């Protein structure tokens, strides 16, 4: 599914703004059949949870409804007309007037509907979108809906971030020609100083395909015809971390000598490979510095915000970060485009987080308590099918982004129990079949060391989340250092694969200080990170360090978290803690070397 764009043959209308909003209850029947009877309005894009003072809305479990009137531009008379929803968390349905036109499972990936036959150019229609925030044992991510004694419902889940819901990204009205480019796949390679761009174009309709590759000055550097082929660029400018260069592959559908559709794709010429214990970009060893992040800000929740996008990337540049992981779900496409343009490397992750009942049981279970003997007892074939859908849709959306160097198919699943192999092996195979050009990984949880984990054998790169000095050896940094190095040596000896520490850190209250090794202080956070860095520098196959987390973020309420997770090196409003300055000193030194 191509991202909608404005081109010589396509037009695009953003439907961002205030929509009528209502929470579904027993009194709300067929809300799409007539104008919503509500005084509430909600902005799109944004989560709805923190907008209103009524806690019943914040804690609502089930459907909510968005509605607005849309006028189709009168110039679209001979075009196909589409509604595209960039994200509806976690399930969405779309109605044009009283007709259901689309439904989609999965809260962080787009879907669309062709509504040409239901609307008229120049006329208005009523657009209603329902969003269901419920998570079940069969969804990605999973959860459970429970009924309280008073009859109300509550959502429980096994991931440590707040279950924000709503229309988190833009809703679009788009036009495209009746004969059009339906999909484009680009794979790049390097042959000496020559860049190689292999492409494949899928058309809807009958037309000739022409392609041109333009440099950043708009000059054509290669061209050809045909639905599939290869372009060679002499003295190519490579896409490099921190030094992005983007060509534009302009694809044209031509009928009778007339261009009936045009679609451009940004192309970064680069290669990615794993070589023994090294991770290579353009044949050169690459060391990841950066963070796990979240789409999370005050009031708007997970709603995409371009101001925060720009500011967050400025902070990444300031601190010397060259990468991040889309923990723990696909981020907005605007984020991926921005990373392409600015040379930030991305580990792209599905929404498969919380596939671990031990995490749901709290710290005791995480560190070796009871869990399912068989993985399938907790997560079975229905979830696996949902998981496959997530992988397919993620790779289909992000396959052409040069910033994406690796797919992460899950975060901290239970990889200790029997049946784990059966569940995960086909998922790795599917990802590799869909994209054989990028490494595939998952993120290993702390209670699954090398002699226990049943899934690491499938991964190209070992991604580890470790909290020695916090959840284990809390307050004892000397012991934490010894245990961390001992485990990393075990991974290195058993697998010899590249390793990235994708999470490490400590909860920290901004402004809390101590001259001692006192957990929750800014000094302790900085000292704990320094312990990890000393160990990383002694382990040859460590190829990356991504601190948890970039910024403080909201979690579910409870006694384990007070106003969210405080492991950010920036506060939720992006103020640096002491650790940010320590990381900047280390990472800028790594870049200079």
CATH architecture classification of the largest domain: Alpha-Beta Barrel
The CATH homologous superfamily name of the largest domain equals Glycosidases
- The total beta strand count reads 32
Radius of gyration: 24 Å
- Helical amount among residues, as a percent range? 10-25%
Structure in words:
By secondary structure, the chain is α+β, with helices and mostly antiparallel strands. It folds into 3 domains: 12-176, Galactose-binding domain-like (Jelly Rolls); 180-270, Immunoglobulin-like; 273-592, TIM Barrel, CATH 3.20.20. The protein is built from 11 helices and 32 strands. The chain has an 8-stranded parallel barrel with strand order 25-26-27-28-29-30-31-32, surrounded by 4 helices. Helix 7 (381-398) packs parallel to helix 8 (420-434), helix 9 runs parallel beside helix 10 and helix 10 runs parallel beside helix 11. The relative contact order is 0.10.
């Amino acid at each position: 599914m191509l991202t909608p764009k404005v081109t010589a043959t396509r037009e695009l209308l953003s439907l961002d703004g205030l929509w009528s909003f209502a929470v579904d209850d027993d009194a709300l029947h067929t809300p799409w059949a007539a104008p919503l009877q509500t005084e509430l309005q909600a902005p799109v894009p944004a989560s709805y949870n923190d907008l209103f003072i009524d806690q019943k809305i914040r804690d609502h479990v089930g459907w909510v409804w968005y509605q607005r009137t849309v006028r189709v531009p009168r110039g679209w008379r001979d075009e196909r007309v589409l509604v595209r929803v960039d994200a509806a968390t976690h399930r969405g349905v779309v109605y044009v007037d009283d007709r259901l036109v689309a439904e989609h499972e999965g809260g962080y990936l787009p879907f669309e509907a062709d509504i040409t036959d239901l609307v008229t150019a120049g006329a208005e229609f009523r657009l209603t979108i329902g969003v269901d925030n419920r998570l079940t044992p069969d969804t990605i991510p999973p959860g459970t809906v429970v009924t309280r004694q008073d009859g109300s419902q509550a959502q429980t889940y096994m991931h440590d971030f707040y279950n924000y819901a709503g229309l988190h990204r833009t809703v679009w009205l788009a036009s495209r020609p009746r004969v059009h480019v339906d999909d484009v796949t680009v794979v790049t390679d390097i042959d000496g100083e020559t860049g190689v761009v292999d492409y494949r174009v899928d058309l809807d309709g009958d037309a000739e395909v022409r392609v041109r590759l333009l440099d950043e000055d708009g000059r054509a550097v290669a061209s050809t015809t045909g639905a599939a082929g290869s372009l060679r660029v002499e003295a190519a400018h490579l896409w490099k971390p921190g030094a992005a260069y983007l060509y534009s592959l302009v694809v044209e559908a031509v009928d009778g000598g007339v261009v009936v559709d045009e679609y451009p794709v940004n192309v970064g010429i680069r290669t990615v490979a794993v070589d023994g214990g090294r991770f290579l970009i353009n044949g050169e060893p690459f060391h990841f510095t950066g963070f796990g992040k979240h789409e999370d800000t005050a009031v708007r929740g997970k709603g995409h915000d371009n101001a925060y996008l720009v500011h967050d990337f400025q902070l990444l540049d300031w601190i010397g970060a060259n990468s991040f992981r889309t923990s723990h779900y696909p981020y907005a496409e605007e984020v991926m485009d921005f990373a392409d343009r600015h040379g930030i490397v991305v580990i792209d992750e599905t929404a498969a987080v919380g596939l671990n009942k031990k995490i749901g049981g709290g710290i005791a279970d995480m560190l070796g308590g009871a869990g399912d003997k068989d993985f399938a007892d907790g997560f079975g074939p229905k979830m696996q099918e949902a998981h496959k859908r997530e992988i397919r849709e993620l790779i289909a959306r992000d396959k052409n982004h040069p910033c994406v160097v690796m797919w992460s198919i899950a975060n901290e699943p239970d990889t200790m129990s029997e049946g784990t192999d059966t569940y995960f092996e086909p998922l790795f195979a599917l990802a590799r079949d869909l994209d054989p050009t990028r490494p595939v990984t998952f993120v290993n949880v702390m209670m699954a060391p090398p002699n226990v984990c049943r899934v690491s054998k499938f991964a190209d790169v070992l991604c580890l989340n470790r909290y020695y000095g916090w959840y284990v050896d809390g307050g004892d940094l000397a012991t934490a250092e010894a245990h961390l190095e001992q485990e990393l040596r075990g991974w290195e000896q058993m697998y010899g694969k590249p390793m990235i520490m994708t999470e490490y850190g400590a909860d920290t209250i901004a402004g809390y200080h101590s001259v001692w090794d006192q957990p929750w202080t800014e000094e302790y956070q900085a000292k704990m990170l320094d312990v990890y860095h000393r160990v990383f520098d002694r382990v040859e196959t460590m190829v990356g360090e991504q601190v948890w987390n970039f910024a403080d973020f909201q979690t579910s309420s409870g006694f384990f978290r007070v106003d969210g997770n405080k492991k950010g090196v920036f506060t939720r409003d992006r103020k640096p803690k002491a650790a940010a300055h320590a990381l900047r000193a280390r990472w800028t030194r790594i870049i200079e070397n």
